[in-house]
Amino acid sequence: MLEGKTVVVGVCGGIAAYKVVEVVSRLKKLNADVNVIMTENAAKFVTPLTFRSIAHNPVITDMFDEPKEWDIQHISLATKADVIVVAPATANIIGKVANGIADDMLSTTIMASKAPVVFVPAMNTNMYENPIVQDNIKKLSERGYIFLETETGRMACGTVGRGRLPEPSAIVESVSELVCSKCDLKDLKVLITAGPTQEPIDPVRFISNKSSGKMGYAIAAQASKRGAKVKIISGPVNLKTPCGVEVIGVKTAHEMFSEVMKSYEDFDVLIMVAAVADYKCANTSDKKIKKKDDNLTIELVKNPDIAKELGKVKGNRILVGFSAETNDLINNACEKLTSKNLDLIIANDVTQEGAGFETDTNIIKIIKRDGNILDFPIMSKTEVGDRILDEVLALLRKDYY
Ligand code: C5P
Predict the structure, then answer these.
(1) How do strand 300-302 and strand 279-281 relate by DSSP bridges?
(2) Same domain membership, residue 148 and residue 72
(3) What is the per-residue pLDDT for 132?
(4) What is the mean pLDDT of each run of 10 residues along the chain (401 residues)?
(5) What is the pLDDT of residue 64?
(6) Is 270 found in the same domain as 165?
(7) CB of 118 closer than 6 A to ligand 1?
(8) Do 367 and 256 share a structural domain?
């Protein structure tokens, strides 16, 4: 329910504008106070009357319309908004905001607002993939603007590719989650490693493990919903980027290590969820290894232990590790808590049904430095994410007061 929430919907000039009628209708059904701002070009695709009839609010198209109220419209909406959704977000509006241009009602409102802004891009594939557009998206993401991922499929221009507007239901779901969630992690910066690593043997083979990345991505999604700025350094996974989260993709443990080391200083909380390969091949063949003898011996050498290296330099940052075990859960986890200088370790017995890799649920124990152990029943990975973040927050508050 969005009772009492003001959602400003900025509609730009793209064919997907017609789908935004459905977005407004769904927001309205959730009892949001929906205020639509249309660019001049948007009004050529769908009439303001359509949006007005559904939103039950005046639709703003022109900066210099006679004001309906005494206050300045772009300032009043910018202040009133709990969230601004721009859909379809064209290359034009993204470019304008990225470069500080405020020359119409929508760009001016965005510029004057402190509310979260969700851009839902939709445009021709080549346009979307244009490095200038991608640079603008990156620049805005780094400044905290949220981008929903476009979908891939048949475009209005007849081509097939990236750049389609996501389904209205998905847009509304993201917006509701953003507005309704508690913002207790606001201003916190959280760095997460997730997924497996792949250690090459030759150009077509690698050593890896069963990690799906679901646990790390679930923590990232919850942290972002609770207001944190989140970055995932991710091994190869098949998962959607959580709303508002920045993802850096890597393959090997060394690449993950180097990305983490480049970033960690800017973060307050470091959560190491990745199942990093402990060993890599001593020598990687640059040609495919041929079947020859009955036995093949591959020499392995140790990879850097990212969590352990962070433990040496973490300072006041909160460092959380995971301990996926098949036996002697508590002892193994406690040993890692100390040897890696972690603040919390999340222990899970991966042999239990509903726990560990690939599943959507997990069964965890949170072990603290003072030896306290919190025991949890089976929960969704989303819930597990929230419980871990609650403990992180408790540690931060303890340090602060
Ligand atoms: O020692 P073990 O691999 O069991 O420790 C697990 C914890 O350490 C996890 O938090 C994992 O992300 C982290 N780790 C790491 N780099 C490694 C191995 C593990 O960051 N090379």
Answers:
(1) antiparallel
(2) yes
(3) 98
(4) 89 96 95 95 96 95 63 75 96 98 94 94 94 96 90 81 92 87 85 98 96 96 91 96 92 98 98 98 94 93 98 97 92 96 94 85 94 93 95 84 43
(5) 66
(6) no
(7) no
(8) yes
Q: Does 197 lie in the same domain as 136?
A: no
pLDDT, residue 53, reads 96
Helix (H, G, I), strand (E, B) or coil at 23: helix
**Count of domains observed in the chain:** 2
Predicted local confidence at residue 67, as pLDDT: 54
Q: Which of 322, 334, 346 to mutate to test the pocket of ligand 1 (most atoms within 8 A of CB)?
A: 322
Domain of 150, in residue numbers: 6-180
What is the distance between the alpha carbons of residues 1 and 325, in angstroms, rounded to a whole number?
A: 41
For residue 396, which phi and psi values (nearest 5 degrees)? -65, -40
CA 91, chain centre distance (Å): 21
* 3 state SS of 214: helix
Q: Which of 180, 207, 239 is the last residue of a domain?
A: 180
Question: Residue 157 corresponds to which amino acid?
Answer: C
- Choose which residue among 306, 320, 334, 339 to substitute to test ligand 1 binding: the one with the highest number of ligand atoms within 8 A of its C-beta: 306
Residue 144 has what pLDDT?
Answer: 86
pLDDT at position 246: 93
User: CB of 165 within 8 A of CB of 87?
Assistant: yes
What secondary structure, in 3-state letters, does 98-148 show? HCCCCCCHHHHHHHHCCCCEEEEECCCHHHHHCHHHHHHHHHHHHCCCEEC
Asked if residue 271 and residue 202 are part of one domain, the reply reads yes
